[in-house]
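Anyone have tokens for 3-oxoacyl-[acyl-carrier-protein] synthase 2? Sequence:
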Amino acid sequence: MNRVVITGYGVASPIGNDAETFLESLQSGKNGIGPITKFDASETGVTLAAEVKEFPFDKYFVKKHAKRMDLFSLYGIYAALEAMEMSQLDTDQINVDRFGVMVGSGIGGLQTIQDQVLRMHDKGPQRVAPLFIPMAIGNMAAGNIALRVGAKGICSATVTACATANNSIGEAFRNIKHGYSDVILAGGAEASITEIGISGFASLTAITTSEDPDRGSIPFDKDRNGFVMGEGAGILVLESLEHAQKRGAKILGEIVGYGSNCDAYHMTSPRPDGSGAAKAMQLAIEEASVDPAGIGYINAHGTSTPSNDVAETKAIQIALGDAAKKVRVSSTKSMTGHSLGATGGIEAIATLNALQHQFIPPTINIEQLDEAIEIDIVINESQKHDFDYALTNSFGFGGHNAVLCLKRWED
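Reply: yep, here.
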């Protein structure tokens, strides 16, 4: 079995589009949430979103790319190229037949779908754009990344709603662990801050109607009332330890465990007793061969919905037992919002940063914890913390649970 390490990452997010800015935002507790600017949202009843700001389009793209790809693909390619740059991965020096891409999206090209349905309605079916399908389908972030970087190995796009990126990273981890690939770009990309995206979640009453950016995404707070839509991409370069060492790569961290299962309970709600999520966490811990007491931090799914946050608390208590009293927990969605299929990638990078720099990112804007939350939530300010293992949780509609266990890398 191969050990699987992280040698690079790239991120497009509401709190930064480069490694340095993203880290500084995590440490300082920067709020990436604000009024929706992408469209007039006044009729949706929703005013807030966590938009990617000042996206550096010109760094890797020209105008024609925006006409041939939906924004979720552009985010994915950008994050992948940033990850490769950090990793100093040279495709001329590796076997590209063993270089893969496993990047998913929860929804895919939602803006393209919305635009072209309206175009068909207004102008007729003959006026639908020729590239509608390849711009809209959810596998095209992965496909476009592989095309851009010349990766000829496995290329797949997991779709498990908000667990998508964690599942993608976990399956990439297993693929390398069992010897099928040397290097894989893994994570998720999403661009669903659109009229239909916001309206759909608003109709489901899953999204907050708060108008105050500081009271929008407030996981574990007594007054939480729904999530804030985010967007972006988070992509990791995963490699076998042997491959990374052979090319002299700088190793940032290690993935040591992955747990994935299904609640088999409800279309949109988590199992209230947390048992499904707990099992996924236990599976990740078992594969990592670490005692639950060794888990120093959990990057919680923490969506700021009433049902998720309590169920996840129960899951942590079941999975860690007595050790649940000591583990530090936070939800970075308080800063980034919830970027659906990209969220696991962005949060895996946040967790990696926490391990590298030995701190716990805060859950910002908490005023009063829900009395049902009986775990150690890191509130409002980051904390220095000495730890070697961390979990990052992602749970999705359909009952999908995906948990990664990361280990601090020490030379």
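The mean pLDDT is 97.
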